[in-house]
Fold this sequence. Notes:
Blueprint (H helix, E strand, L loop, with lengths): L4 E4 L3 H12 L1 H4 L2 E5 L2 H14 L8 E5 L5 H11 L3 E4 L6 H11 L2 E4 L15 H4 L5 H7 L3 E3 L7 H13 L2 E11 L13 H6 L5 E5 L2 E5 L5 E6 L3 E7 L5 H7 L4 E7 L2 H12 L8 E2 L5 E2 L1 H8 L13 E12 L2 E12 H8 L3 H18 L8 E3 L5 H11 L3 E5 L2 E4 L2 H7 L3 H4 L2 H16 L10
Parallel strand pairs: 1-2, 1-4, 2-3, 4-5, 5-6, 6-17, 7-12
Antiparallel strand pairs: 7-15, 8-9, 10-11, 11-12, 13-14, 15-16, 16-18, 18-19
Helix pairs in contact: 1-3, 1-14, 4-5, 8-15, 14-15
This protein binds NADPH dihydro-nicotinamide-adenine-dinucleotide phosphate.
Amino acid sequence: MKRNVLIIGAGGVAHVAAHKCAQNNILLGDIHIASRTLAKCEAIIASIKEKGSKRGPGRLQAHALDALDIEATKALIRETGSQIVINVGSPFLNMSVMEACIETGAAYLDTAIHEDPDKVCEPPPWYGNHEWKRRDACKKAGVTALLGAGFDPGVVNAYGRFAMDTYFDQVDSIDIIDINAGSHGRYFATNFDPEINFREFTSTVWSWQNNRWKSSKMFEHRQQWDMPVVGNHTTYLTGHDELHSMSKNLGVPNIRFWMGFGDHYINVFNVLNSLGLLSEKPVRTAEGDEIVPLKVVKAVLPDPASLAKGYTGKTCIGDLVKGTKNGTQQEVLIYNICDHEESYEEVGSQAISYTAGVPVVAAAMLIADGIWDVGHMVNVEELDPAPFIEQMNQMGLVTRVRDAKGDRVLEPQRELLMNAPEEELEDTATYEYFAHDQALLTKGQPSRQQGMR
Ligand code: NDP
């Protein structure tokens, strides 16, 4: 059992994570929020109080911290008695925050791969360049380090693993599809940190095809998908974090990531990129000032958190999995629909932050409970996905599945039993568990999306 959470970062994702920790503070204990700017942490606390998110007694406190400073981070972990650290600051912080966890024994979670400020789209596998180098150190210290526990990476890794375990004997491909069919009403904005958003797209696109890494250019490969609720959308083959662990851990020959972009985004991106304004390399102005063009673009674009009010529409993110079961080809889509306005109503955030902030807290709760507290470093697909999906279903982020049997809420235990081999179902203990599970499910709190069933 682990208690007391330190959230690092005070941006859009931290805002959701803090609300969700507050909603579950009876389990999680004290909640501390730390970033360089104390006022941002205090604003999150004010929002939690305004929405009445906190459920039980316990501290809720803001702290000023530069998380690149390992000693200061260790001191804060110790001072606050935090046994769980949720790192949802910028991805430049991962390795220093992880080090502080290794040295204090706190469990570590993040939602994105570490980035070196001077490099973009490094050679694959990206985790091998940074996080996995500390795997032995985590094991030696008995520290649980859960990497990439947002939506993508995170939930989509769990979807891939769940599909493999439940619906297939052999999986040929996993296509991860990420569509934001929402509208923020601004001329141009990114839904999360612009610097990180652009860095994903300015260099080589790495995808996993026929059991090897394939390089291509951004916007070189496009694909149309007909997705539930949001309908038909054009997506582009994009490099993304989860490919770099799923390719190693799942043994699936083809894993690709497709992100939806509108023509307007692509036009603006291409202009900025062609002018060199998305470069992470410093330039010197005529006045002798050294500046990083990408940081200037970030500074002039809207703060992603400010998009939340008035954001309309929905996101649809999921895994389309193809393979065979009992020698027959089949196709399963596991996905989530998240509504921008509902997210704002509940916690004051847009859906992109919501879909990343809820999973990392669901994962923290599984660590707090001991279910996922494995005492070493793991990516999400290495853990049992069922309790994770179940936990998110209860927290407002509901998983659905579309296959030959139809489109329904994915209740993991029910799906596992529906797809279990007959000899397992003859076991009465399994039947009893199923009945018990069904009773719990029907008694469970109705979540905000279960009405779609
Ligand atoms: P924001 O840019 O809104 O927030 C980043 C926060 O990090 C800021 O509040 C900033 O605050 C803080 N920060 C930056 N440097 C430091 C530092 N040295 N010490 C302490 N705090 C620091 O980003 P988002 O909230 O949108 O995203 C957060 C993370 O989640 C990112 O890693 C992003 O890539 C990831 N993400 C993951 C998704 C997923 O599905 N897996 C989806 C969306 C985002 P301050 O300036 O005050 O220090």
